[in-house]
Design a protein that fits this description.
There is one protein chain. With 577 residues, this protein is of the alpha/beta class. Among the domains are: 85 residues, 2-Layer Sandwich (Gyrase A, domain 2), CATH 3.30.1360.70; 85 residues, no CATH class. Helices cover 52% and strands 11% of the residues. The protein has 20 helices and 13 strands. Helix 1 packs across helix 3, helix 8 packs across helix 9 and helix 19 runs antiparallel to helix 20. The structure holds arginine. Arginine (ARG) binds next to helix 11.
């Protein structure tokens, strides 16, 4: 049930009935305060202005035509012409009843789209670092959310698996294999890369060989391909361990690296030239874009092929967008990449649109995010100034969580403790990221994210176990259907029910904007409302059996909603903690 959509429909019908244009905006929003009802329609003023009418008078006419019988218990006009809608408890009870009866909380099925999500995208022969963590975590929440709604989600892990550095890496891998006479594990990718670079800079013969390998690799030489593939495999095997630890849904089959688009590049350059979009300039092939100006105020030149014939990151992203539309049949493409790459994407997509590779009807969306900062407000680094490895970060999270849960549960056995610490620790890192608006930088702070109070994973996970404990205490199996009917006699019950029924409009917003923090804020608020309800409306000790059943049902719907919401975020729950 999407209450906002339902009310919007009703209000706009009433507006049209009194002379508003067919495309009028009812602007129905959740009310900020209880005294303004559950929802407010704020669109009257703008329409009154257009029609040259007095807004309050228009509001009165709209209210007369508003068909909310059985849905609203009261409709009021406030201020200059706001319409406040108070939902009827009986109606809310009915809706809550059907949400509880439905395995997907009664969320309306969507018209399924094919949605490609570009996220994580680490680089080969480099360890994943904190810079990839936001893309991985937020992108995965988007994938889970859209999948829950019924879309066909294609996860595209655009790994950096191509470029001139591979000549050097192949030459170094070869050297290592020769010296160690065994298949090396590449345990420390960071060191491997560093050493390769050092050898390249110091050893001219090595550098020569490396340059030769670049050309050979690009020419499809079998030996170089095999060595290259080895590097990709080792890297992705290590990254998969991190994905699994993070409870991220990416697998090996989602890898669609830069190399996938190689064969398309010559054709793209030729086509852009034929279309008159690309021109030769100082030996390179360039697209000049009026939409972007350089420092001199002239159209910016975007290089798509270098003088030496090499292609660029932009050329690949042009091909990649084309591929996602033509081959993957994307209806929509989301890119979770940090905000510093915004200009790069805009240039690539401007060219994509001009060349007609992806029609305007298929949105290409940059869901950008800011940086992860340390407590000092500077880029998050190790004490010595190096980049922090993601695996080290996760180790620390679990270590800290272990101390925390052990203190709270002195009697818990070691196995359960270990499992719980993992869920809490990893959940904390993920939730801290997900709960902040993604467009801004965010401060990574262990104490905040592991706190049991506030909008944190431990708090949310704990809130869930608290709801479940009601059933445990009563010895009721929460998976079996409950008898009785939901009845909302207390204002707190009605408020909780209304909030529970806002799950669909929340998830719809997250799906549209790719903003998981909106889901976090909703769940946090829901947990707070449940607390208030729990304190003031006795569940198990309710005198009347019908009231007891009704409250149990509300508690159950709360548990399911919290769990489902956290699940779309990729945050695990436990039964007790
Ligand atoms: N591998 C790149 C990096 O680490 C991110 C790739 C993002 N995706 C894309 N289609 N450009 O910066």
């Amino acid at each position: 049930m999407n209450i906002q959509a339902l009310l919007s429909e009703k209000v706009s019908q009433a507006m049209i009935a009194v002379g508003a244009p067919a495309d009028c905006e009812p602007m129905v929003r959740q009310s900020a305060r209880v005294q303004f009802g559950d929802y407010q329609a704020n669109g009257i003023m703008a329409v009154a202005k257009k029609l040259g009418q007095q807004p309050r008078q228009l509001a009165e006419q709209v209210v007369q035509h508003l068909a909310l019988d059985g849905i609203a218990s009261k409709v009021e006009i406030a201020g200059p012409g706001f319409i406040n809608i108070f939902l009827a408890p009986e109606w809310l009870a009915q809706q809550a009843e059907s949400a509880l009866a439905s395995p997907r909380l009664d969320v309306t099925p969507v018209e399924a789209q094919t949605i490609v999500i570009d996220y994580s995208a680490p680089n080969v022969a480099k360890e994943m670092h904190v810079g990839h963590v936001r893309s991985t975590i937020i992108g995965d929440a988007a994938a889970r959310t859209l999948e829950f709604l019924g879309h066909n989600v294609i996860r595209a892990n655009h790994v950096g698996d191509w470029g001139t550095q591979f000549g050097m890496l192949i030459a170094y891998l070869e050297k290592q294999q020769r010296e160690h006479h065994e298949a090396i594990a590449l345990a420390d990718l960071e060191a491997f890369y560093r050493e390769a670079k050092k050898t390249y800079d110091e050893d001219e013969a090595f550098a020569e060989r490396a340059r030769g390998y670049v050309v050979k690799l690009q020419g499809g030489d079998e030996y170089c391909r095999t060595m290259w593939k080895k590097l990709v495999d080792i890297t992705m095997t290590q990254n998969q361990t991190v994905y699994d630890r993070l409870n991220v849904t990416l697998t090996r089959k989602d890898v669609m690296g830069e190399s996938l688009y190689n064969d398309m590049l010559p054709g793209i350059v030729a086509d852009l030239k034929a279309k008159g979009l690309a021109v030769e300039s100082e030996g390179a092939t360039v697209v000049f874009l009026d939409e972007f100006k350089n420092k001199e105020g002239e159209p910016m030149g975007v290089i798509i092929q270098k003088k030496d014939g090499g292609y660029l990151y932009t050329t690949t992203d042009i091909a990649c967008a084309k591929y996602r539309y033509e081959q993957l049949h994307a209806d929509r493409v989301l890119y979770y990449i940090d905000s510093r790459q915004h200009q790069h994407l805009m240039q690539a997509w401007t060219i994509v649109r001009k060349a007609g590779y992806v029609p305007e009807s298929v949105p290409l969306e940059h869901h950008m995010f800011g940086m992860m900062l340390g407590k000092d407000g500077r880029p998050f680094k190790t004490r010595s100034g190096g980049t922090i490895k993601l695996s080290d970060l996760l180790d620390e999270a679990v270590e800290r969580a272990t101390a925390l849960v052990a203190e709270k549960n002195p009697d818990m056995d070691a196995d359960e403790l270990c499992k719980l610490a993992n869920i809490v620790g990893i959940g904390a890192v993920k939730y801290a990221d997900l709960s902040k608006s993604r467009t801004t930088d965010y401060i990574f702070d262990w104490d905040n994210m592991l706190a049991f109070e506030g909008n944190t994973a431990p708090y949310m996970q704990y809130a869930y176990t608290r709801v479940l404990s009601v059933f445990r205490k009563a010895g009721i199996d929460e998976t079996a259907p409950l008898a009785g009917k939901i009845q909302l006699s207390d204002a707190r019950e009605a408020q909780l029910a209304a909030r529970l029924l806002q799950f669909e409009e929340t998830i719809t917003q997250v799906a549209r904007d790719g903003t998981p923090h909106v889901m976090c804020a909703y769940l946090y608020d829901l947990a707070g409302l449940f607390s208030g309800f729990y304190e003031h409306c006795p569940i198990l000790s309710a005198e009347d059996e019908a009231v007891r059943q009704s409250r149990l049902k509300l508690a159950l719907l709360t548990a399911r909603t919290l769990k489902q919401g956290l699940d779309t975020l990729g945050i695990e729950t436990v039964e007790r903690m």
